[in-house]
Amino acid sequence: MKLKRTLATLGATAAMTAGLIGFGTTAHAAIPGCNDYSIYYSGPTNAWYTKVPTIGSPATNFCTLRSGASGMQVYYLQDTLNYCYGQDLGEIDGKFGPKTAAALARVQKTLGLDPDGVYGPQTRDKLKWHWMTLNANNSCNTLYGAGAH
């Protein structure tokens, strides 16, 4: 009986270890896809704003975008890649295709991230987003450094 429990414990430990080892390759797969966007405000009297991909209600920005995605959430990512990083995507069309994936991978590489062409939380936090005001001022800044325009 004791041998069976020991073998069962070893088997469970091996299964958990194998699951942890494989987690790194599927981390993006476990995070849901962004299906909307939210407006973030910053600066004196919230004069500055940017639009960031999100999911759910209440919205969370803990989501991913990858090839095949489409919508305004992709459009605002493309706008940031174009305006803040000079990535010439041609027409910004809200479709996450090969040009968007390649542009994102180039930017990820310059930010010291894995250049996988998939937008996720690490990319979101490192990106300098396209911030605007109602007076047509433009700036690029991270989400968490947004107060210093």
Can you characterise this structure?
With 149 residues, this protein is α+β, with helices and mostly antiparallel strands. The protein has two domains: 1-30; 32-141, Muramoyl-pentapeptide Carboxypeptidase, domain 1 (Orthogonal Bundle). It is built from five helices and four strands. It has helices spanning 2-23, 27-30, 72-85, 98-110, 121-126; strands at residues 36-42, 48-54, 129-132, 138-141. A two-stranded antiparallel sheet has the order 1-2. Strands 3-4 form a two-stranded antiparallel sheet. A hairpin with a 5-residue loop joins strand 3 (129-132) and strand 4 (138-141). The longest helix has 22 residues, at 2-23. It starts with a helix and ends in an 8-residue tail after the last strand. 24% of the residues are buried.
